[in-house]
Amino acid sequence: MLEELGFSRRTFNMRPIPFAGTWGTSSSISYQLANEQVTREGTSELEGLSKKEAKRKTKELVGERAQAIAEQIVEALQAFDGYAQVEANNGYINIKFDTQRFASRVVNTISELGREYGAGEPKTDRVMVEYSQPNTHKAFHVGHLRNATLGNTLCRILKLAGFEVHKANYIGDIGMHVIKCLWCYQRFHQGEEPEPGERGRWLGEIYTESDQRVNLRQDALGLLNELSNEDPAFVTMVDRMMKELYQKHPVGEDVAYLLGQIANKREIKDDAFYSAETVPTFWPIAGQQLHTNLEMARGDREQHEDIEDEIPEPARYEEWIRQWKSLSERIEWWSWVPAWQEEIRNEFQRWERKDPDFVHLWETTRSWSMDDFERIYRELDIDFDTWFYESEVEESGREIVKELMEREIAEISDGLPVVKIDEKLGLEKETYRTMPVLRSDGTTLYSTKDLALTKHKFEEYGVDRSIWVVDVRQGLYFQQIFKIMELMGFEQAGKCFHLGYEMVTLPGGAMSSRSGNVVLYDDIAQAVLQRARQIIDEKNPDLPDEQKDDIAHDVAIGSLKYSMLSRDNNRVIVFDIEESLSFDGHAAPYIQYAHARACRILEKVDTPPSGELRFVDLTTEEIDLIQQIAIFPSEIQRAADEYKPLYIATYVYELAKKFNDFYRACPVLHAEEPQRSARIALVSSTRQVLANGLDAIGIAAPEVM
RNA sequence: GCGCCCGUAGCUCAGUGGAUAGAGCGUUUGGUUGCGGACCAAAAGGUCGCAGGUUCGAGUCCUGCCGGGCGUACCA
Description:
Elements: E1 14-16, E2 24-27, H1 29-40, H2 51-77, E3 83-89, E4 92-97, H3 99-113, E5 126-130, H4 142-161, E6 164-171, H5 176-188, H6 199-214, H7 216-230, H8 232-236, H9 238-248, H10 252-263, H11 278-298, H12 314-328, H13 337-352, H14 356-380, E7 386-389, H15 394-406, E8 411-413, E9 416-420, H16 421-425, E10 434-436, H17 446-460, E11 465-471, H18 475-487, E12 496-501, E13 504-506, E14 509-510, H19 521-539, H20 545-565, E15 573-574, H21 577-580, H22 588-603, H23 620-630, H24 632-642, H25 645-665, H26 675-696
Parallel strand pairs: 5-6, 5-11, 6-7, 11-12, 13-15
Antiparallel strand pairs: 1-2, 2-4, 3-4, 8-9, 9-10, 13-14
Helix pairs in contact: 1-2, 3-23, 3-26, 4-24, 5-6, 5-13, 6-14, 7-12, 9-10, 9-11, 11-12, 15-17, 17-18, 19-20, 22-25, 22-26, 23-25, 23-26, 24-25, 25-26
The protein binds one RNA strand through helix 1, helix 2, strand 9, strand 10 and helix 18.
């Protein structure tokens, strides 16, 4: 057709018309054609103009020409049948569909396919997705929730898009964290055993305590170092503080060391002290000074005009004092730390030689955590086809290291086997760096086990693609793993993909169980459930209790999941507890509510519409809604192609919004025939797509709420 | 140093090289002789971090800079 008009042949690149209430497709091809014409015809009009003016003129000419060409093409298109209307607008060619015909086609398709609507053609690729990977002996917090939700949703979308999906979990049931936890348990909590149901959480607390014990020195000095660097008042007062310290604790070398390091803002190191009493003795003095400084920061600033800018905000002092207080409770641990670290190393050796008592304790406590995880997955409606365990790949990990050494891919450096990846690849610029594959004492690292597991996945599972849903901070780590697999000659390494996601932080900063700045899944789930239940009691007091519980669960969990999915995965989520308890606006309950509303209408229909549907005099709201339900399958495909559950989270929200617009503007049950039947069918289709869409992101669609 | 990510409305965030950059929260003012008000409408709110470049056309692609976060050999 274009050739007839004297243009060269090309494909029309169509996209939806971006105006509400119109339904069809548009093309900006006229711009491309106009540009070619203008360029070809030369630049006589542009002569003598500055570069900027020439550019502006060109833009103007192209714009005019585009409109002319669009009109020309529209003229030619009028001769064809099948469109309701064709028009040239603002240089674009808009082809509007016959709404009646397309509306009934979309609605009929959905009604035929039902739960299958949105599913893609079966694909040949088998995809393995590894996600969740919680550590036993540690608490499950909202950061883990992001991973589990993202991974599970990705699996659902890939499956719907037509891929054969293999869901894998990889439990961190051994490693330094487990050893630390069990050391602390035996040393300080021997024989204690909480109620079933609380045991997993309790173990997590033991782990935190252990971590605090071992890191006491590091944490205390961390605070002092921060104060040296960021609180000028603290540094100024260091002489007076040292005088006081010297009176209480006259180990001259240590006092001089502290004085020197703080005064010169140099890092204080814990192995530089002669006496283990120095820091614990200094601690109350430092705290006193912090309180004095806080008073000063709060006080009349005019009195300190000379250093006004340098004094930190009172809020910072409050935070420092909070940290100081928390550390004060355990500062007497200082002298124990080296011995404890030694004990933990010994504990690791007990595991290495499979000491029966130790293994027994490990098995028992491990199952406490596993019971918890299984309960949480049930609550979240998240499941797996395969469960891998770190403890199962330790041996094959050692073998793979042996192989790496024999093949000279790995070498000994500083007393431990490492792979110098850049060197092996002949890269000049540092890219993959060096990866240690075993500790110098022979114990296995995370990398040791992951190499073995990856090999296992390649050899035992016939997967074409393998995806790891893991925190983005491990980006370099996975590149290293994949490169090492490549160096070993595994072709599949090219089809490995690390789907990274950013962390979940709290308003007070990054989550850290050691500092107590953490939101546990169980706590937040309970709070959200309670709130959901409370709202249902208000909105729908007559429902039976059991049903209320079910709905509260669907709404609460859905809401939590949605908050994890409605942000792009490479964006940090600042988890706000207040916000997570609000069910208004852009959140899962909004979408679920639309679904419940649709169900309500359908419930009141006595006889379902029969015969051919006639969509006459469609309103803007109806057209927008029909368009939205029509694009569901392509949205699924797009989300699967790009590994972006976010697209579907956004999509279902938009759909709910459009349904609510429709709901307000278009009476259904009170409409006249044939409109009534058509609208009932549209509500039914919309309900189906809402349900399918929510299912794709793992969120329940209750019929009543 | 090197590498990755983020910067869009007061706040939290969407945005597939294409038409007038959109939601939610918050603020102000309204809406049920209609199928559920967990809803809806209106108002106010923008140098899309800055500067170049590519393009007929850039929030979107490229380069440089600024600001923030993260990673960078025996944690996972």
